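Handout, section B. The chain below has 184 residues.
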Amino acid sequence: MAWRLFVALPVPPDMQKRLASLRSGVQGVRWMDGDRMHITMRFIGDVEPGIAEDIDANLSSIDAPEFEVAVRGLGQFEKGHRAHTLYAEIDRDPPLMHLQSKIESAVVRAGVPPAGRKFKPHITLARMRGAPDDKMAVMLETQGSFDAMTFDAEQFVLYRSHLGSEKPVYEPLAEYPLRRLVFT
């Protein structure tokens, strides 16, 4: 039976609370629970458990330093002319992009095809189903730009996603610490 996997940076609880404070009462918006917030570094999809073990082994060999993640503003993903996802934008800083490249390489070495789209770092905040465009435009205008909020990325995680009739459940399978920088 295949496992649905992805690799992500977890969002710490204090940042989850700060992002949750951006919520508004717009109808048709289903907000993410804070404990499910993350930055997807690589969606893998369905793989057999043996491939999952190879992915884990390759991810375990990644050596990268801790770094600061900057969250700066809100955006929407659209399909056609309809917005379907509200997200917090993440700066594409070199350490983040370097780690993502290493993760992509580790996953591909395990036999998974390369990602089919360009990496866009973000934190999904809400799914929109029928949210009025005018209300979303007002929300983005009033709350969409803010001074950068930052958090330290100290690890990345391999997750298994369990889809069901309710919301998906994200099961952490393995955690990979990032190297602490030591200044002497």
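Note. The first strand starts at residue 3 and ends at 10. Compare this with the example in section A.
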